[in-house]
Amino acid sequence: MMTAPTIALKVEQVAIRFGGLVALSNLNFTVREGEIVSLIGPNGAGKTTAFNVITGFLGPTHGTVSYRGTTLNGLKPHEIADLGLIRTFQRTSVFPNDTVYDNLMIGLHRQGRTGLIEAILGLPRARSSERKAHQRAGELLEWIGLNRRAFDPAGSLSYGEQRLVGVALALAAEPSMLLLDEPVSGMNASETQDFVELVRKIRSHGVTILLVEHDMPMVMSVSDRIVVLNYGRIIAEGPPEVIRNDPAVIEAYLGQGAMHA
Amino acid sequence: MRSGVAILTVAAFASVPLWLRDPYLLNALITTGIFIIAAMSLNLLLGFTGQLSLGHVAFFGIGAYTSALTSLGFDVPLPGGLHVVHDPWPPIAGFALAVVIAGLCGYFVGRLSFRVRGAYFVIVTISFAEVVRLVALNWVELTQGPLALNNIPSIALPLPGFGELVLRTKLQNYYLVLAVAVTAYALISRLVNSHFGRAMRGLMENEALAISVGIDVTRTLTLAAVISAAIAGAAGSLYAHYIRIIDPEVFAFINTVTMVIMVISGGKGSLAGPVVGGLIFGLMPVFLRPIMTPEAQWIAYGGVLIVILFVLPRGIVPSLMQRFAKGRKEVRAVGPVAFSKSSAEEHA
Amino acid sequence: MSEFLQHLVNMLVLGGTYALLGIGLTLIFGIMNVVNFTHGVLYTFGAYIMFIVVNQFGLNFFLALPVAVIAGWLLGAAVELILLRPLRGSDIDTTMLVMIGAWIAMQSGTLWIWGGVAKSVATPFPDEPLVLGPVSVAWLRLFVLAAAALLIVATYLLVNRTKLGSAMRATFQDQDTASLMGVNVDLIYTSTFAIGSSLAAAAGALLGPVYVIFPQMGDLAAVKAFAIVILGGLGNITGAVIGGFMLALAEELGAGYVSSGYRDAMGFLIIIAVLIFKPTGLFARSERVG
């Protein structure tokens, strides 16, 4: 027997006003545990704003965002991160002068913290903590498939590869929900395809995923459900096949250029 | 640093007094060694945490004065007719106190300064050092001002059962400085290769990203400042008890510049950098003395700093290591960051 | 009371030259985002030029002043072209350190050429001061005040009423947009650095004859310039002028009523206090140059 999937993220009646400008109004949607949901919309539709509200970088004028029952409004970004909600950044997603491997080691900061004295003296607890970190870094490297680039400076990687490192950094924080900010921008077709596989693999480990994206084919192939925004409000919601043929969606995109599906 | 090379290097340094007969050179090595310790501490802030602290000489000088005053004793009149009197304590206590007080100053400077960043941080640190210099110059009741603190006792190591060993000769002081330098190096090395060291790097490379992976900016910077200041204070104490005269000129900005040149030319962000840079710029004045006046030497040092920043911006040690790395066929890059290769090799 | 008035008069004289120092640095720091450690050396340079031109070449004192200003302009331009332009785009630390290297080299050069003994510049003014009621002012100092005021007004007009000035202000606001609109950013940078340096040289040329000239005189001047810039806000000329007078006042009162030894500490203390409590400066309309 299948149990009904529980709700992970709940966005209720969220609105945000900047002076006289209404950037988001009456946003209502949920993301269920283990789902992959994509937030799309033409330029200026409010996707990034919505993303920033959910991740705590902006406070809504109205409405609540909650994760697994805990209200996120008013929490600082690192407090939200502590709840298991981890986001990636679109730009500057790596530590450029460090090797990829070291990037991951830095990203594992939250795991197994030890006292400074213990670390300096090389006491057993510090040493085993280091060993675990190295092991985990190796695993993450395998996950994103960048073993052969492990010791190259992260800044020398292609833009797409840097995004992968960014995702690995997010995974290092052991998220229960991952929020991806335009993850495949700058990737070519084959990199995008690999990324879709990675997202599916991450989900199969029980991580819920919400992503904001422009790349239509990618969104269509990876999402369980799609939420479409335009002018700050939701104009359609549903699985890819439904969205693809939704007249309101087509019109919103045709108004700014053809939608490639 | 790979331990074999490290042990050989330490042994080589330890052997020097056995074959070096010239006391003048030995003296130069001792003061150079003291400056190297200070330069290593500056490197912690400058090279590993990315903070250009140009007031570092303040911690050095505060360490020197603390140690000197602790072991000389003082009698300072306060407004209202009160006197603060301190009887002389053993120099070893002075050393310990120097480390603590300098570290404490590092804490306060860190907490205050890190609220302002970038160029303003540089200016605040310079200002702090100059204020301290002016206080040392003007608070004559405590510091004797420009008349200097004289006859500072040499450090005496208590040997239980045997009394104490007063370190009076150059030979003894050389080994003392070497011991402290090796300890400082080891401490910094372990720090940099630890979880905390990675936090410092993350902060230096991409602060926003570091925050998002949970690194506490203020705490990391402040801790780095405390440790850095404490080590500089230790160097200052060694200086006071070796030279045995301390005046406010110890706070001169030129001393900070010297340390900066040592770190930058040797390679900031590399452990061996300050040592190499320190040896070069600590000993060069000795060899240049017969042919160039001090002013002319400083013209050269300024020029060297500029040339290095243009030509070898990462410094001597990292550039050399990069040369060697290119020669290796393996995927594993050597690079200037100590923890990459050695830790990966040990654990991967 | 008359003592206070005397301090006030001193403050005006000092403040005017401090304002020149501050304006020069705020332009450079504000428009180019360079921590200019050579500013103090240019101050020293201006003073030594006066010494050479008046004492050694026997030129008229009043003509020597423009010579010093122009020499400062040239030296500034040279520093920018040789050292700063190749480093455009490097991180701020590298630039700062190069400036420090230049400062050390230039100051040591000054020491090497002229030695450490202080020099005085011969001035054409009568020795007895002008007495106005309870206060007395040396004629030289009156001249300094007048010259400084003239230069401040000239700079203000340059930045706010000329084409070059408006290009400078545009670059301060947004370098990329300015260059898209046809502003030659390279030229603006060199000009800004040269102008800022000439103002520092002017300050040195004016104050050198008032006190004595020695190679390290620029060190304190440099710090005071930074204090003024921080007080007045980056890129804010009016703020720099007010800041210059405020610093002079703090120094005069500090020296008069607290202790003359700590006079020079005023600049540092102001820097520390302002940066801790109000980092954007006391006049935080920091968006505009001028």
Provide a descriptive summary of the structure in words.
Chain A is an alpha/beta fold and 261 residues long. Chain A has 2 domains: 7-94 and 176-254, P-loop containing nucleotide triphosphate hydrolases (Rossmann fold); 95-156, no CATH class. Chain A is 38% helix and 24% strand. A 6-stranded mixed beta sheet of chain A has the order 6-7-8-3-9-10, sandwiched between helices. The longest helix of chain A is centred in the middle third of the chain and has 21 residues, at 124-144. Chain B has 348 residues and is mostly helical. Chain B has helices at 3-19, 23-46, 57-72, 91-113, 119-138, 140-143, 170-192, 195-205, 207-212, 217-243, 253-266, 273-288, 294-311, 316-326, 338-347; strands at residues 74-77, 83-86, 156-159, 163-166. In chain B, the strands form 2 sheets. Chain B has a two-stranded antiparallel ribbon with strand order 1-2. In chain B, a hairpin with a 5-residue loop joins strand 1 and strand 2 (83-86). Chain B is globular, with a radius of gyration of 21 Å. Chain B starts with a helix and ends with a helix. Residues 328-348 of chain B have low confidence and may be disordered. Chain C is mainly alpha-helical. Chain C has one domain. Chain C contains 11 helices and 2 strands. Chain C has helices at residues 2-32, 39-56, 61-84, 92-114, 139-161, 163-173, 175-180, 185-207, 217-232, 237-258, 265-277, and strands at residues 130-132, 135-137. A two-stranded antiparallel sheet of chain C has the order 1-2. In chain C, helix 2 (39-56) crosses helix 9 (217-232), helix 6 packs across helix 8 and helix 9 packs across helix 10 (237-258). The two termini of chain C are 36 Å apart. The relative contact order of chain C is 0.21. Mean pLDDT of chain C is 85; it is low at 285-290. The chains are: A alpha/beta (261), B mainly alpha (348), C mainly alpha (290). Chains B and C meet through helix 5, helix 11 and helix 13 of B and helix 4, helix 9 and helix 11 of C.
